[in-house]
Amino acid sequence: MNKQLEHNFVELLEKHQNIVHKVCRLYTNNENAHNDLFQEISIQLWKAYPKFRGDAKFSTWMYRVSLNTAITLYRKSKRRVATQEFEGVQFKIKAEEYDDTEERQLKLLYSAVQELNDIDKALVFLYLEDKNYKEISETLGISEVNARVKMNRIKTKLRSILNP
Amino acid sequence: MDELELLKKDWKRQEKRLPRLSFDEIYNMVLKRSSSIVKWIFIISLLEFAFWTLISFGLKDTEAIQRFDNQEFRSVLIPMSIIGYAILAYFFYLFFRNYRTISVTDNAKKLMENILRTRRTVKQYVAFNLIYLFISTFVTLGILFKQDDQFKNVINEATANGELFKLYATTIIATLFLLAIAIGLILAFYYLIYGLLLKRLNKNYRELKKLES
To answer: Do B32 and A39 touch (CB under 8 A)?
Structure first.
């Protein structure tokens, strides 16, 4: 494909790579798997890029392709080598930044999010990324009402984990 | 504070600790080959089409078939072959049409539906082949009974001994048994391949459907 197009695309991806890293963190539990998923998302983004129309924001488009790759297309690689577990590595919580309660709560919350199924994780991810229910429902292909209902259920679940 | 708001606050803070890849690193990644399930489904589907087509070609020239190559046999075989290839062409067309609708920029549910539909087309083609195999085995068996000299001798002998029914019953049961084993093995193979490949997709699709119910 056109070299200039490739160059523009890599530049854009480099700029917005945080989105892909965040999806990888949510859906993988070690560094090798993270890199593997990052690569697959990059390939899918590149393959879809020629059809990308400027009418959507590049980052919005990236959310959709990245999540689709993570929850639908991605085949876990056999190259995966067991390294450190996700919890405690991926989301390091610096003790000095929080009081004990908040640190404990965050640890619990992150491990609770890790336990969610792929679809619930996608909902939480989009929510954490400040997407509104309309965008969440459009990305996943469910109705806005159902996205809200599901999100409320997840909130209740998280609350019950923190306050058993 | 709302639990998710607490998480959101920290989520934003974590952003500073994300890895950062250089332009060259990303550039090299983009050039690599995809290992997505769509690619695998595409490859496996093409192999399935090739496998069943080769089998039908391969069977045509076997000695057993040539042994009773006569007018009556051809009048059955030729229409069956034409139907077989027409159906292959139809499934091939459907498969490519469905494959082209798979787009990673669709919403998650639609993407999953399109992948499953592409897969379903090939599954139907395999089912068609198994039925075709079943029917053609019995058609061949019928012609064999009627026309093959060796079989005719065996039938005459059985008639003389009053064991004609036993002969028919044994042959049919043995054929059914062999067909059942062959079909069973093929189905087990498919179940294994697609079970592994589509396990995650099916699970996530069910979750999405559950949200809508």
So the answer is: yes
Coil, helix or strand at residue A85: coil
Q: If we measure between CA atoms, which residue out of A128, A120, A90 comes closest to residue B2?
A: A128
pTM: 0.82
Whether the Cβ atoms of residue B123 and residue B113 lie closer than 8 Å to each other: no
8 Å CB contact between A50 and A100: no
Looking at the structure, tell me whether residues A102 and A159 fall in a common domain. yes
Could you tell me if A7 and A57 lie in one domain?
Answer: yes
The encoded tokens of residue A155 equal: 């909130």
CATH number, domain with residue A160: 1.10.10.10
Nearest Cβ partner for A142 among B15, B32, B211: B211
Contact A22 B13 (CB under 8 A): no
Which DSSP symbol is given to A55? Answer: T
pLDDT per residue as tens digits for the range A82-141: 444 444 444 444 544 546 788 888 888 888 898 899 999 999 999 999 999 999 999 999
Using a CB-CB cut-off of 8 Å, the residues of chain B touching A51 are 103, 105
Instruction: Name chain A contacts of B23, Cβ cutoff 8 Å.
Output: 10-11, 14
Distance CA B153, CA B159 (A): 10
Return all residues near B141 (Cβ < 8 A) that are at least 6 apart.
B171, B172, B175
Structure tokens at B30: 């983009």
Tokens 């000095």, located at residue? A96
